[in-house]
C-alpha cells in the first residue's frame, strides 16, 4: 500500500509495528460503519458499529500484547534493546535536536554557540547580585526599642 487513503486523502499516521494488515482493514471498516451511523442514525447502524468497535478494540489489545511479548522474548538477553523499547513506550525521547539560533541579552542580539553560552553564563552568574541590588532595605524610625530595626524588603521597585 502507498500509505495514502485515496478516499479521504489522509496519509497513514505513524504505522505501529503490531498493526497487522487485516486489523488495519478492520479499523477502516469500523470507521466506515461509524460514518454510516452518524449520517444515518438508526439502532441497526449503531449496533453494527458498536459490535465492530468492540471487535477491533479487543484485537488491537491482543495484537499489541502479542507483539511486545514476542519482542521482549526475542531480546531477552539484550538489555539495551529492552530499554530502547521501554523508553519508546514511555515516550522518553532522546534530547531535543532544537538549536538556539540567537538570543536577546541586555538588549543585544547574540548568535553563535559560544557567544550564546557566554550570555547564559553571564546571566546566571550575575542574577543573584542583580536581585540583591534591587532589594531596598529601610529602617523603621518608629521602632519602640532603639536597638531594634525593622527590615522591610521591597522587590523590583518601578
The helix fraction, in percent, is 40-55%
By DSSP, the count of extended strands is 4
User: What is the ordering of alpha helices and beta strands?
Assistant: EEHHHEEH
Give unreliable regions as ranges. Answer: 1-9
Distance between the termini: 65 Å
Shape verdict: elongated
Query: Count of helical segments?
Result: 4
Oligomeric state of the chains in view? single chain
Report the sheet-strand fraction: 5-15%
Strand order of the largest sheet: 1-2
What does this structure look like?
The protein contains four helices and four strands; from the N terminus they run ββαααββα. It is mainly α and 158 residues long. The strands form two sheets. Strands 1-2 form a two-stranded antiparallel ribbon. Strands 3-4 form a two-stranded antiparallel sheet. Helix 1 (21-39) runs antiparallel to helix 2 (43-74). It is elongated, with a radius of gyration of 31 Å. The termini are far apart.
